[in-house]
Amino acid sequence: MWLMLFVSVPFAEAQTARITGTVQDAQLGAPIVGAPVYLIGSSGLAVTKENGQFVLQDVQAGTYILTVVYEGYSSESDTLVVSGDADVENNFSLHPVRAAGEEVAIGPKTGDQEAKQNFVLSPSQDSLRSELKTVCACFESAAGILNDAVLLRKKYEDTEQYQRDREAVEQMNALLALWRTVQYHCLTVFGTELFVDSACNRPDEISDMRRKLDNLGIGT
Predict the structure, then answer these.
(1) How many domains does the chain have?
(2) Whose CA is closest to 16, among 58, 46, 44, 55?
(3) I need a surface site. Which of 112, 154, 168, 198 has the fewest CB within 10 A?
(4) In the β-sheet with 45-47, what is the strand arrangement from edge to edge?
């Protein structure tokens, strides 16, 4: 089902601060490029640049959860307290995720790969968030994205064959980035309403599709 609900308690302050940091591979120490960094409880979203750095501007005072998720790595979250206009620095070291007997398929992106990912994903994410105005819209978007991911992965007999197709891997990364946008945005806006069954919201279906992807070697 959906990830745990993160709650922020922002305070009304005229002053704002910046949150900066880096995201790197915990084993290699190499910067991870194109990783989305979410400030849960706000509309804040940044994407790491070529050096792995990210910046979130104009953050109001409050307590937040800062989360980074990237395909092929475990997600990481930290609690941050923003006070006044004092900037906050928070760095992440992501650990590669390996299924039994498998090598990590996706690593840090550089050069042309970074440019392609940032060009394709950022407008899509912004457009998608603007459409997620109801619980029903959240379910419809999440179900559609996850179903597309299942169908894409099932085109390949095994994980090795899938990983050899760079275009398919990039398509999967795009789908997973959109899924995470839906996931975090909808949790922040609607909270426990996402867990309530209705004619247009069936959380068990989301859970089932995520299990299918997990069984196919695609972590969500």
Answers:
(1) 2
(2) 58
(3) 112
(4) 45-47, 36-40, 62-68, 76-82
Burial class for 171, CB neighbours closer than 10 Å (0-12, 13-18, 19+): middle
Distances (CA, A) of 138 to 36, 154, 184, 204, 217: 19, 24, 10, 14, 24
Q: 44-69, pLDDT tens digit by residue?
A: 788 899 899 999 999 999 888 788 87
Q: Is residue 220 part of a domain?
A: no
pTM (2 decimals)? 0.48
Q: With respect to residue 9, please indicate whether it lies within any of the assigned structural domains.
A: no
Are 86 and 117 part of one and the same domain?
no
156 vs 52, 61, 164, 167, CA distance in Å? 32, 48, 10, 13
Provide the pLDDT confidence category of residue 112 given band limits of 50, 70 and 90: very low
pLDDT at residue 128 is higher than 90: no
Residues 204 and 118 in one domain: yes
Q: Can you list the positions of beta strands (E) in the chain?
A: 16-25, 36-40, 45-47, 53-60, 62-68, 76-82, 88-89, 92-94
- Residue 191, pLDDT score: 62
